[in-house]
Amino acid sequence: MALANVAFLCALNDLKVLTIDWDLEAPGLLYYFRGLLDPTEIREMKDQAGILDMAWNWVSRTDKALSQDDVDQLVRETGAGGYFGEFAHRVFDFGDGHLDLIMPGGHTFTARDLDSAQIGYEAALAEFSWHEFINERAGGILLDNLRDWAKLHYDLVLIDSRTGLADDAGICTVQMPDEVVMCFVLNRQNIDGIARVASAIRRQRSSSVSIHTIPMRVAGASTAEEADAFSRATRELVRTGGLDPATVESHLSDLPIKASVAVPYYETLAPIAATTPNRDVATLNYLDLAVHLTGKALIVPDLDDEWLDIVRQRLAPQHTTIEYLADLQTAEPERAAADLARFLDSARNEQLDNGSLDPRYVRAMAELTLQLVERIDPFTAFELMHTSVELLRESSAAARDEWYSLFVATLERYAQLLGQITVDEDEELAVLEELDTILAVDGNGPIDALKRISFKVGATKLLLKNGELDRARLATEELQEMLSGFPVEFGTQRADQYSALELDHLVLKGDLERIAENNAGAVAAYEQGFNKARELSSKRGEVTRALFDFAMRLAQTAGPEEAPQYAMSALSYAPTSSSLTASISTLAEVVLRSDRAQDLVPEFVRRAFMNRRMTHFIGAHYGRGAGIARQFADQLFRMAEWVGRSDQEPEILSSLTAMLLSVGQALTGRPDSMRLVQRRLDRGISDTIGAWIDRFGPLLHPEQLADLVDIKALLEQQSSRPPRGTNSR
To answer: Other C-beta atoms within 10 Å of 464: how many?
Structure first.
């Protein structure tokens, strides 16, 4: 709501404003602008391509790229101004100002594996990996181009995203913005949540991004409770978030968005909903925020009465409802969540005091909670789910059969949410164990049996993570019994799920033995899992992932004869280029330490590096910092020496040189602040490149040799001069 109102008010003041709906899982920014467009325009805009299409097309094009020229062409196309302009749609014009919107994504996408297959938005979003996009496909180039284009063509760019640091949300809170505005309500969960996010942003971006903390729905009643909430917010944002005390106090005192009974339960803009916008509290609060963010003198201009009538007619409800809870299903998510939280708390208190509630009322709230958690921030969702689970747990105790399905569904979603936000691992473990107990007593059929095994796997992972080895060992033994007792006859899909869970069990069993320093036991479990995975007829993604995981573990635990072979297998089974890139250094070390390194290194290089697409992935990963770069460069040098000893064909040495160049080029492109703290390590990389030139220069292609000389000179120059903006003495 805050973003939409700030954008609208700035457009009313002759600013060119771009809004981007990056809340891909629960998009809703368009709803706030419904009244500004006629219904036909709204329907058309819902189908428009957007952020997910940009990223999807980028990955698809890199899939099909056959050469560096193809990649360069893609970079040039997205760097041209017209590319992103096709995604921006006009919402509103006012004088010299206007408001544009980039949608989250279209309705259909072409599957990456079958060009003829079309999949929907939800399936595409579930399939899409932001980690792969950034780390394997150089997606940061696309994001930088989008950022540069938007800043060139607009006075103000506002990105709507969930507050958090997960892949897609983290792009909007860490990578893209010059400034981050975090809106929150004054409850403990929201305060703690944004304080942690603020701390993470500062760690990753230091002082290069401004953070604004804006309290929402403030009562302004000057009560002791409200004063305490403001004090707690200030304390946590300074202590945990690391923000400047004076800035936090200024934001909290000068920029709160006060609660207003005039705000409707459907998504709209405050100046539209207000009878007299110039005196409307919500409108003036948003105006203050807009002035603060833009640094411009803004006003609430007079709006044409006839135009306002048209807008309000478009916003009039099309259907009426009987139950208020049913109304909340289509209300603005934050407002609906606030009301539902109050109802849930009240119902829980009444349940504790009186022991019973109308089951229809409890069911309606629980079902609304399940629907609403997909549309709100995870910290608020956690609060709602926690209370809903308590209500259902009490109700289920009195009438188990009546509540079984809804209670289990709610517990499952609650466990998923806990895993996503990692607020309380003890709570997550307790919920998984509760689900296991419920299904052990009331579960029926193979589906429930598979669910129970899955919950036990999740609980065992948490026990291992927390170092509770005795409980983890007991859990793995129980898993073995559950897997052994599973029905023999079941369909193909369930067979695949069962096989995947069997492999999970063997991973956990091996990890447990490894932590307990029983290396032989770990190797036995990993080898059993590796052989079982190879025997499976299905080669679904989870099986390939399991083969890779087992091979990686065996490369690090098996004996000196077997470990190098497992390292080579891991190269073949890597499910993604990202997995391969992140693991290559570990696998290379296994091969280099082998007694058969002279025979194995050339084949290792062929499998790992003789793919031109890997060049950029290697550079981006191992060129992040001088420490990891130097270690990897030393490994490349050792491999090159083995290649020289075995007199292999020049293509292998050329591939190793290309990897070294990629890492060196990435290092020269780091921010100045990073170079300052890594100057000594830079000199180490420069020395390695110098040794490479001395040792292998006569064997290299002249162009590669010249590139190495240039990179070496750049690194030496950077390590000897202070970054821009510092004083040299």
So the answer is: 20
